[in-house]
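DM from R.C. (forwarded with permission)

"hey, sorry to bug you on a friday — could you get me a structure for this? deadline for the figure draft is monday and I only need the backbone to look sensible"
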Amino acid sequence: MPPAVERFVLQWGDMGGQWGVNRSVAQIHALLYLSERPLTAEDIAEALGIARSNVSTSLRELQGWKLVRRVPVLGDRRDFFEAETDLWEMATRIAQGRKEREIDPAAAALRACRVEADKDSRVSDVARKRLAAMDDFVSTLMKWHDQMLAVPAPKLMALVRMGSRVASLVGFGRPKKARESEEA
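My reply, with the result:
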């Protein structure tokens, strides 16, 4: 494996660990992402020096996230795997998966707490207002997330590239002199 590829695989594995993703899963994803051709589980195990059983489990997880897919190779009966290489598609799938697994259950629990608090006279007005504010905030972010997923990737990328110009356009950006005086 070329040093640059090895370094990327190792770094991606470390980043995955920081995001709560198993290191092997992240390393396999990185290897497949950079691979010129689909790889078998045996190829992956050999390249990364990890157990074949770990590779199989990791590939199932990556397939569950729709970041890796099984592909046929003419004349070979083994299973081959390749990674999604469209970065927007990858980011969208990861964001959607994390939302479904982490944010949606938390939002549902928050809503249930809010409803329960509204029915309980022992809950203070301050607590009720704060629960309502948090529920409204999370609901707004979830709606924004869903709206952004509906924006075509090229338009979303153009929006991201505009950066602070978008904030200035809608009047949210602070003038440069105001920022400089705050920093001083």
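R.C.: lifesaver. The chain has three domains: 3-83, 87-150, 152-184.
me: no worries. The first strand starts at residue 39 and ends at 40.
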